[in-house]
Structure formats: C-alpha cells, structure tokens
Amino acid sequence: xxxxxxxxxxxxxxxxxxxxxxxxxxxxxxxxxxxxxxxxxxxxxxxxxxxxxxxxxxxxxxxxxxxxxxxxxxxxxxxxxxxxxxxxxxxxxxxxxxxxxxxxxxxxxxxxxxxxxxxxxxxxxxxxxxxxxxxxxxxxxxxxxxxxxxxxxxxxxxxxxxxxxxxxxxxxxxxxxxxxxxxxxxxxxxxxxxxxxxxxxxxxxxxxxxxxxxxxxxxxxxxxxxxxxxxxxxxxxxxxxxxxxxxxxxxxxxxxxxxxxxxxxxxxxxxxxxxxxxxxxxxxxxxxxxxxxxxxxxxxxxxxxxxxxxxxxxxxxxxxxxxxxxxxxxxxxxxxxxxxxxxxxxxxxxxxxxxxxxxxxxxxxxxxxxxxxxxxxxxxxxxxxxxxxxxxxxxxxxxxxxxxxxxxxxxxxxxxxxxxxxxxxxxxxxxxxxxxxxxxxxxxxxxxxxxxxxxxxxxxxxxxxxxxxxxxxxxxxxxxxxxxxxxxxxxxxxxxxxxxxxxxxxxxxxxxxxxxxxxxxxxxxxxxxxxxxxxxxxxxxxxxxxxxxxxxxxxxxxxxxxxxxxxxx
Length: 569
Fold this sequence. Notes:
Layout: H1 4-7, H2 13-30, H3 37-58, E1 71-73, E2 103-111, E3 114-121, E4 125-127, E5 141-145, E6 153-156, E7 158-160, E8 163-164, E9 173-175, E10 178-184, E11 192-199, E12 204-205, E13 209-212, E14 226-229, H4 236-247, E15 252-255, H5 276-279, H6 291-304, E16 309-311, H7 328-333, E17 349-353, E18 356-360, H8 372-382, E19 391-395, H9 412-424, E20 429-432, E21 438-441, E22 444-445, E23 448-449, E24 455-459, E25 515-519, E26 523-529, E27 534-541, E28 553-558
Parallel strand pairs: 1-25, 14-15, 15-16, 18-19, 19-20, 20-24
Antiparallel strand pairs: 2-3, 3-10, 4-9, 5-6, 5-11, 7-10, 8-9, 11-12, 11-13, 14-26, 17-18, 21-24, 21-25, 22-23, 26-27, 27-28
Helix pairs in contact: 2-3
C-alpha cells in the first residue's frame, strides 16, 4: 500500500488512478472491510490498458490530433427527412393505469446522495371550462430499499397541478393531472435501489421500479455512459432514437431542450404539423395540445423511471397562454436541482455526476452579463474544484456555433455575453440542440481555432416532426439574410466575420474551419468518461441501429489542463 506522501503525488493517468485506488484500499483497511484491494488495482490497470488497446485497434481519433479538416457527410436521399407524430392512441402513448395510480414515472438527480422521483396521477381535463383537481387529494409517497420488494424507507413529497388557458373563442383549455415530486435523501453512492411510488393509504402504489445512484464527486469515478438527446418529439423517428438509446444502456440522460412538440398542434388536437405558421397562419396564439405532454411522459417512462433524466428548456417549451404566462408545462412537470445548486430557477442549474460538473443554462431567460443567471453562473464556476470534478460540461438549447442555414447565428447575443466566462473557467464540452442535425466542432473560442476552447456538439437530431435540417449556410444560395433567424428571446446580434477566409462576410463560402464534422441524420450521442483527461464521444445514427459496432462519429475528447491552465482552474 502507498505511503501518505504517495497519496498526494500527481503522476501519469495510470499512476494517478492506481494510487487513488490504493489510498481507497487503505481507508477500507482501517475500517476492517475485508476486500481484496490488490485485485481491484489489477482490474483497474487491466481496464485502462484494455481501453487503450481497443482505441488503438479501432483507430479512434483524439482531439490531440486536431484541429481536423472540415468534413461533410451529405443527407442520404434514400432516407426520409422526417415522419409524422405517433397518434395519441398509439400503444406507447396510452395510459395503462387507473386514475389514482402513478403514471409517467421519472427520476432525476437532486444531489450526489439524493434523487427526485416524479409521477402523475388522476386524469387531465380538456375543454372550454376545466376545473383543476385538488392536488392534496392523493398523497405523494415513495417507498424504497436495497432489495426487491423490501422497502425499508418511506418519504413524502409535494404535489401540484397546472392549467394551460387560452382567452380566445374556439380554443380549448387544459388542466393537468396531479403532478408529484418526492426527493429521496441519504442515498449511498453506486447503489441499486428498488422503489414504488403513489398513495399507500388508498393502496394506489406503482409497480416496482429500480434506479442506481451515481458515484460521489471524485477524479476517478464517472457515470459509465451519459446519453445526450435533443429535439426529440414523438414521431416514429423519435421511437427509433429512444429504442437505440435503450440498447446503449445509459446511466444518465441529458435532454437539451424541445421535448414534446405539443405546440405543433391546435388545442383541439388532430394531426401535428411540421410548420405551424404555414399550416395555421390565422391562429391567434401559438396553440398547444397539452395531452401530448402526458403521452410523452408515458413514452419515456420505461427509460426515465430507472435512468435519471436531466432537462433544460428549449423554444418549444415556451407555450404562451393567458396573462402572458409561459413555460408552465416545463416548469411544473420536471424536478431539477435548482435549489440544490443555488440557482433557484428551473431555467438554469448545475449538478455533479462523479468527476463531471454539469452546468445547464437557459437561453430563453435573461443571459446578459448584468443579470441573475450570469451572476449565478460565475459563482457556480468559481466554486468548481477541478481536482474533484476534472470535467466541466455545459449544455443549453440553441447552439452558438453552427454552420447550418437553420438558426444560423440566431443566439449570437448569448455567445457574446457568456462565451468568455465559460472559456475563462475552462469548460471542456458544450452540448446543444435546436438545429435538427449533427455537428461536431474543433476546439474553438470566438470563432477562432483554440486548443483551450471547448468542443461544441450539436445534437438536435432526436427525430421530431419538423424534419432534419439539410442546408448549410456555406452552400450556394443558402446563406440566410442577416435579418432572418430572429431568436424567440433576446436581441439580434448577427455579425460579419473579422478574420479568416470569411473576413467581412456573414457566411463562409465553404465549411468553416471550426466545423470538424457535420451530417444531416437523426440519432443520439453517448459520452463515456474514461478518466480525468480522456472521454469517448460517440454519435449513433438511427439508420445504424441494426448494424454491429457502427457509429456515425467517434472521437476521444482530451482535456489538456497543463496546456490550458488558468488561475481559476
């Protein structure tokens, strides 16, 4: 076993990992826990060497080899650009429990030792006149334990309802079922828990579900697989995305906005449309069909009842209604660690998952440097200890860097306000959606290749009804006019480039140098953090679902703290 001095040393990645495991063994030894730690160390060494050998054999590139020459894989014309939404009576969307039994069950991270459990009971109402259910009429309870069927602990939470009201003749109103949120505290890291939820006083408990807690923050423990999805919706393409994701067995899910696309409908339901303004030019307000939210919750339950789902809002969650109220569905249905991360806002928050600190930012609330979100972000980043959580990952809905025509430079104002702060604190990876396609950037800062900049990834390709984006701003005739792509929140800050081959122009005439790879296909991403400097990123295309060992894009993202060290990191 190592000496105390050895435990403080910083060596190579393998040495550091082995020393930390050895130090952990020493702690176990003092607690008289009889574990064969030497075997643990050998297994760890084997796994590290095995990953290196596999990567070498597969010739997976790393960002150390970058910046990469821009590459485009054009849309495959043999594929459909999109598909219709699943009908509301589709088996995967239908309610399969009676009124007071839990429906739409999901879990989310509250802290490294606590978890949110959420569900819905009762029946939603839709019509000209709707009366909300009393949320106190059904209790909010979770029973849980470490063995199946043996629930040694019980905890209660809170419940609420919300309404979506439209003060226009002919539009229907909606009031939800009872939405329950219960926080379970005092959980052990890396432990499997079995649970049921509901109201035990009326024998209305759910069937048993199971979740596994993640490791405590630390430089050598990471979630095995982190799934990233954006702009999902409820189409047959969405089904393929989720089925493919389930096969890849994630331990955590990031949903980077635009969930249900309930606002592609009139309040009367019917068939959803790919272009709302085209289909309903006379609509007095952007209507929604709120039962699509309930359908989405049921669609996701087989996955989200056991794997934590961490969401951030997108433009399709705005959903304006009477009295200027917006985002009511999003704010009511999801429990996020806003209080736990001191943001006190469901629009932005942060959390830890092993050695990764995640920052989820809101693009549809004030992001100016004088605002509350910016002040919170600055303090949150200041408090990050990179010796405990080496990886710093950020996510929000609209991308700052995108070479597609759709939403081109749409959130340039947000980039100008926040990018320097993220760069200052050494953010490693940024995930966004909004553009319905895939794109991976070279490391970039302020439109300039920079080895200390983040790797930006656009994954707005979940499969929604609006179809995949296929046009690039650098294609002839596809550069959008500077007055287009107006954001639904914030100002317009479109700029011409000040350097490089696009100097003085609004669009490049070729794929920008900061765009490493782009492809118009539906799919999802998976991040596997190997250690404190290496993380394997894989983009899985839907059309590769049934192909053995096939990826649309794969690369090791490598942190270089010794190159990019800053006083604050």
